[in-house]
Amino acid sequence: MKLPIIKHLTSFVEENDEDFLIETIETLEALSEVSSLKDEELDVIGEIISNMYGALEVNKMIKDGSSKKEALNSFMKRVLGSIDA
User: Fold this and answer.
1) pLDDT bracket for residue 4 (50, 70, 90)
2) Are 74 and 82 in contact (CB under 8 A)?
3) What is the pTM (predicted TM-score) of this model?
């Protein structure tokens, strides 16, 4: 996951609607089932999906009252904490 991408997607959701991300995630998940995709292509699709889910999570924290900066920092700490575990 890349914080600049999650931050950008979070701004996109704020300006538009989270339904755009949800529908894009569903499309990418369906695309990932194509059997002829190479591992590298699947990795890229997976990374994009992860960043989109991250942006949705950050957006949820913002809706729950966190500032954008707090939400982004909290999310990345959780991600890094799960990697270290």
Assistant:
1) very high
2) no
3) 0.89
